[in-house]
């Protein structure tokens, strides 16, 4: 599968039939708007002395203006790797080996580092999991905000400081005029994360990548941060790629959800549909492992086995060793994203011509969180 630029229109993508299927699978429901971020057949490799490890394999999705796309999966699924590939923060020798990444229609995956640097902050904001890794402990919050603003926008020192106060107010920092001169260690974890969000929003980027932004926060602060992120981005029309392992965060914040496994996109669709009626066995397992409020159970459901190592990804469907429905076809042929319910799932259970028969589930379907 491939997509090549059209000579008739710079930046346009002429889609082959398979590409149209990938586009249909990844487009948001209101496909009339041009996506802020468009990823097509993304492949990331890490060459080693013994073999070339494939960290991301044929990943395609879009994010529309004002939309929050949740990216979920176990550790090692490729969630953070996808975000790092978009913003070109892959650790060497990792590199993009195939596919395209477009921001507002402009291809950015093939840009040299010096050409990509102006995009970071100005057009792509990044919120990291630990705010202490994003904030310099030697400089005040105000200095860091002012520096970021002046680096990307034509502002004087005074204008940037006024804008910094406005940003801190917007993200809910009390007494922003005073706290502007405080240092990161003088803020709580939740307040530091608010400052990181302010930094990410400072230059009003079109795309925000939030990599596990609430993992280290308590539940009440987590809810405030998620509500803040969703509100601010909806008001500004920014697209958000929310990376997390927490399906509760996805349910509360995202408009659509993309489920990843072993560097592959295995299900994508509206968040309510994926949560209530997951179409891929892996998604079913993720939902079944969430404790419900309606009944008490001594033991939660657990997906048997573990995520495969990059050097030992199975042939066919990567999930087949852990799947209760796997047959020989699953072990030899890799499924593409197929229409399934209100979304798409990469599973032979949904083959329109020759679907794999579903075996008895390893749990009562009533245990799936709804």
From TrEMBL:
Q: What domain of life does the native source organism fall in?
A: Bacteria
- Protein family: Belongs to the ABC transporter superfamily.
Entry-linked SUPFAM superfamilies? P-loop containing nucleoside triphosphate hydrolases
Gene3D superfamilies for the chain: P-loop containing nucleotide triphosphate hydrolases
**Which SMART domains does the protein's record reference?**
AAA
Keyword Transcription assigned: no
State the compartments where it is located.
Cell inner membrane
**What's the Enzyme Commission number for this chain?**
7.4.2.9
Every ABC transporter domain range: 39-287
Topology versus the membrane, per the UniProt entry? Answer: Peripheral membrane protein
> Catalytic activity annotated for this protein?
a dipeptide(out) + ATP + H2O = a dipeptide(in) + ADP + phosphate + H(+)
Query: MF terms per GO, please?
Result: ATP binding
Sorted alphabetically, the keyword list is: ATP-binding, Cell membrane, Membrane, Nucleotide-binding, Transport
Supply the name of the protein.
Answer: ABC-type dipeptide transporter
> Which top-level enzyme class is recorded in the Swiss-Prot or TrEMBL entry?
translocase
Organism of provenance: Halomonas mongoliensis
Q: Which Pfam families match?
A: ABC_tran, oligo_HPY
- Stretches the record annotates as Disordered: 1-35
